Fold this protein.
Amino acid sequence: MSITPKTIAEQLWQASHSGVAIAPVRDEIAQLAEAGRGLDVAYQVQQELSRRRLLAGGRLVGRKIGLTSVAVQRQLGVDAPDYGALFADMAVGDGEEIAWSRTQQPKAEAEIALVLERDLGHEQHSFADLISAVAYALPAIEVVGSRIANWDIQLVDTVADNASSGLFVLGSRPVLLRDLDLVQCGMVMERRGEQVSVGSGAACLNNPLNAAVWLANTMVRLNTPLRAGDVVLTGALGPMVAAQPGDVFSAHIQGLGSVTAAFASA
C-alpha cells in the first residue's frame, strides 16, 4: 500500500481509538515530502484527522497553539509556533474527574485561554484587533497527549498528531483583558499541593497576544479564520508535567484565578 497523508492519518486515528501508541511517522512523512516541505505534509495529515472527527459528529470549538517557547523552538530548529484543532469532546469541566482511558501519555501545562466574540478575518491582525475580538480570558490546563510511543517526537510527528493534543480544562470565572496583565501575570501549578511548574505570560512568545496574532493570521491564510465563540489556547506559561493516575493539578494565574485538572485512579 502506498503512503499518503490519509494512510498516515489512519495510523494515528487507530492509535487514538485503540489507546495503543505507534512508532513515529516522520519517516513516512519524509517519503512524501519534497525538500523542506515535511511540515506541509504533516499539516495535511492533521487536516485529514480533523475531517474524520467532523464526519464522526465532532464539533470544532477552537484552536491550540504549541511551541510558544523560544527555547523549545530553537531546540527543534523552527522559528514559529504550531497549531492544532480543539473539539467539543476534548473539553473537561473545571475539577471534573478525567477518566484515565481518555488520555494517552498525558502531560499537564498551564495556559491562558482566550474566548472570541468577533470573527478574525483580516490578512494581517494587530494587537488592537485581538483585544477588540476577545470576549474574555480564562485560566486553562491543557492535557497534552501523544499517539507516538514514548513521546519520541520531532516537529512533523507532533504537527501530524494534531499538535499532540489531548484534552483541555477551562476555569469558570471569565476576566476581561483590560483587567489582566498578560505579560507579567505569574503562574504556579501544583500537584496535590506540591509546586511542579512556574512561569508567566512572558513565557508565551513574550506575550500571549503574539501567539494569538500569529494564529489568527495563519488561519486566514488557510481559509479557516477564527470565528466568534472559538476558544484559543495561547500556549504554555511554564514547563509541562507528566501526569499519573490519581494526580490533581491546580494552576493559579495572577489576575485570572485557578483551574483544576483531576485524573481518576486507573
